[in-house]
Design a protein that fits this description.
Blueprint: E1 4-8, E2 14-16, E3 23-34, E4 36-37, E5 40-41, E6 52-69, H1 83-91, E7 97-99, E8 102-104, E9 108-112, E10 116-132, E11 138-149, H2 154-169, E12 178-180, H3 196-204, H4 210-216, E13 230-232
Antiparallel strand pairs: 1-2, 1-9, 3-6, 4-5, 6-11, 7-8, 9-10, 10-11, 12-13
Length: 245
């Protein structure tokens, strides 16, 4: 199973998400505004559309819906309150960094496999809790997080998008060969440290095809695959050629 992480640029700290986003919504607003005069918006009779000013730049937002549940954490390290798991994400929306003398949220990178690497700041976060204990501690969280992409030139944005698409479409292994499960150094109880999303990218050309790789190798829990395990690469047929979700 892929894991999404936020990497804090200044400190190098890593904030992992318990599960993958249920949904990711990307919104782009271009640098365009209505033309105005000193006392308001400029328009005129007979015009089909308001005059516009093209300011350049714009805004790209990503909204992720995440699920956290204490029952999905390995028993020996399972917290009583799900807020223990989500608090690091809330801290990404605090003004804990300083730029040009002003406080600001820390610059982070949304990293998901090899095809998502988006620099930005967390501008909004909200949680809905349920599955409360008798003492009032929530055990499950439905968390929505909004990331605003930060400074990139138009050329960098286009190059990065093309690289993501190319990386997602080009397998590094051939059907019938094998890929070896390498660890990422973050092994914990219940998690071997193997990044199945990266294995799926190398074997099948997309981190979203991890289920196909797991099913082909009869793996029910990708989190526990031992480091060094050789996994057979399945064929990607016309019916499974898309991203497996």
């Amino acid at each position: 199973m892929e894991r999404v992480a936020f990497l804090v640029d200044e400190s190098g700290a890593r904030v992992d998400c318990l599960l993958n986003p249920e949904t990711v919504r990307v919104t782009r607003v271009a640098g365009v505004r209505p033309r105005g005069v000193g006392d308001g918006q400029l328009t005129g009779a007979g015009l089909a559309d308001d005059p516009l000013v093209f300011t350049g730049g714009g805004r790209t937002e990503l909204v992720l819906d995440l699920l956290f549940d204490t029952d999905l954490v390995e028993a020996q390290t399972r917290p009583e309150d799900v807020r223990t798991l989500t608090r690091p994400l809330w801290m990404l929306a605090e003004n804990s960094a300083v730029a040009h003398g002003w406080q600001r949220p820390p610059l982070v990178r949304l990293v998901w496999g090899k095809t998502w690497n988006v620099p930005g700041v967390v501008v909004a976060i909200a949680e809905r809790f349920d599955a409360f204990t008798l003492t009032g501690s929530p055990r499950r969280s439905w968390l929505r997080l909004k990331l605003l992409r930060v400074t990139e030139s138009a050329d960098e944005a286009q190059d990065g998008f093309e690289e993501e698409l190319a990386a997602a479409a080009t397998p590094a292994a051939t059907p019938g060969s094998a890929v070896v499960a390498a660890g990422d150094g973050s092994a914990t109880p219940g998690y071997s440290g193997v990044r199945f999303d990266l294995l799926s990218h190398d074997a099948l050309g997309s981190p979203l095809r991890w289920r196909l790789l797991a099913e082909h190798n009869r793996i029910t829990d990708p989190f526990t695959v031992p480091v060094g395990t050789a996994l057979a690469v399945p064929p990607v047929t016309s019916t499974t050629g898309g991203d497996v979700r």
